[in-house]
Amino acid sequence: MMLAFFILALVSQGTRLVASQRLPANIFILAGQSNMAGRGGVINSTKNGNFTWDGIVPPQCQPNPSILRLSANLEWVLAQEPLHADIDYNKTNGIGPGMPFANAVLTRDPAIGVIGLVPCAIGGTNITHWAKGGFLYDQLVRRTQAALKNGGVLRAMLWYQGESDTINREDADDYKGRLEKFFKEVRADLKHPRLPIIQVALASGEGRFVETVREAQLGTNLLDVQCIDGKGLTLEPDRLHLTTPAQVQLGQMFAHAFLQSLPTPIRTSSNSAATLSFLVSDHFVGFLFYSTFLFVGLQII
Ligand SMILES: *[C@@H]1O[C@H](CO)[C@@H](O)[C@H](O)[C@H]1NC(C)=O
Ligand SMILES: *[C@@H]1O[C@H](CO)[C@@H](O)[C@H](O)[C@H]1NC(C)=O
Ligand SMILES: *[C@@H]1O[C@H](CO)[C@@H](O)[C@H](O)[C@H]1NC(C)=O
Ligand SMILES: *[C@@H]1O[C@H](CO)[C@@H](O)[C@H](O)[C@H]1NC(C)=O
């Protein structure tokens, strides 16, 4: 009976040990506006003028124990669609590129380790909203710093934004300068001067100046900034948002761009950092306590 208790205690600690190994080794920021937050499968019901998500999650977007997301409460949880539900909370969220991206990376490089996604996108935001000092900028930096607290490596920022900057000619003309400033400031504040950034050249826009913004995106001339082209991806009837199949395709394009930019497949050493932080945590102290207890217990039996 006592032995059973000890074994139970040990087993329960064992699951915690396993859980500790599941901290993300590879951290990715997801930022931008609605097409990054995800509107795949969201329809404006003609009956009541409400936006509802159809709830369809294709195989490429299914949860995977090796994909976590940082919740609005700054906790690592199993990642599930819609990824941005608690971040872009004023809107109806659907399928975005984050899950198909992470699943595609794991399929192509299974040894990469656990992926941690940090959703930060908010629908309807223009590039000025993302300027340093504003809420969105601060939230991005704060959430990323929290994500890195227990180890892991910041691998890239996936960025899809600009639809709201296509309405006025002046805003479209200023987009390139504002975007590059934003990228530079994020890198400086995250102390990662060559943080890989993968951005999307717009598939759609709210106004007439889509081509001007696309040119800015395709012509961004900063080291380690890649641009994948969203042109031609299928859109919902609103002609603004990517459909679920288009988001799956985009996620795979992100994954391809990320993996081909790596010099060699990642064989992480960052898991050891995560384990190390566990060793100094109170879970470990508890584990030591139980171990000692078990040892003494076995002596008695
Ligand atoms: C949604 O649909 C309703 C009813 O058809 C329409 O009045 C409304 O303008 C639509 N809203 C948007 C944002 O498209
Ligand atoms: C959406 O539709 C439901 C059901 O018709 C209704 O109860 C709800 O108030 C609507 N919400 C909004 C924001 O219009
Ligand atoms: C949600 O809406 C409220 C009220 O308009 C606003 O104060 C808040 O900033 C919005 N938050 C997001 C994330 O859109
Ligand atoms: C961004 O949106 C804000 C508020 O809606 C507006 O004041 C500003 O002019 C917009 N800026 C751009 C570049 O579109």
Description:
Keywords: Hydrolase, Signal. This is Sialate O-acetylesterase domain-containing protein. InterPro entries: Carb_Esterase_6, SASA, SGNH_hydro_sf. By secondary structure, the protein is α/β, with parallel strands linked by helices. It has one domain: Rossmann fold (3-Layer(aba) Sandwich). The chain is 41% helix and 14% strand. It is built from nine helices and nine strands. It has a seven-stranded mixed sheet, with helices on both faces. Strands 2-3 form a two-stranded antiparallel ribbon. Helix 3 packs across helix 7 and helix 5 runs parallel beside helix 6. It is globular and about 45 Å long. The protein starts with a helix and ends with a helix. The N terminus and C terminus are likely disordered.
CATH superfamily: SGNH hydrolase
> Which second-level CATH architecture applies?
3-Layer(aba) Sandwich
Helical fraction: 40-55%
Percent of residues in beta strands: 5-15%
Rounded mean pLDDT score: 86
Q: Rg from C-alpha positions?
A: 22 Å
Count of folded domains:
1
Number of helices: 9
Strand order of the largest sheet: 5-4-6-1-7-8-9
**Series of H and E elements:** HEHEEEEHEHEHEHEHHH
Q: State the oligomer.
A: single chain
Q: How can the largest sheet be summarized?
A: 7 strands, mixed
Task: Provide the CATH topology.
Answer: Rossmann fold
Number of strands: 9
Give the bound compounds. Answer: 2-acetamido-2-deoxy-beta-D-glucopyranose
Highest-level CATH class: Alpha Beta
Termini, distance in Å? 11 Å
Poorly predicted runs are 1-20, 269-301
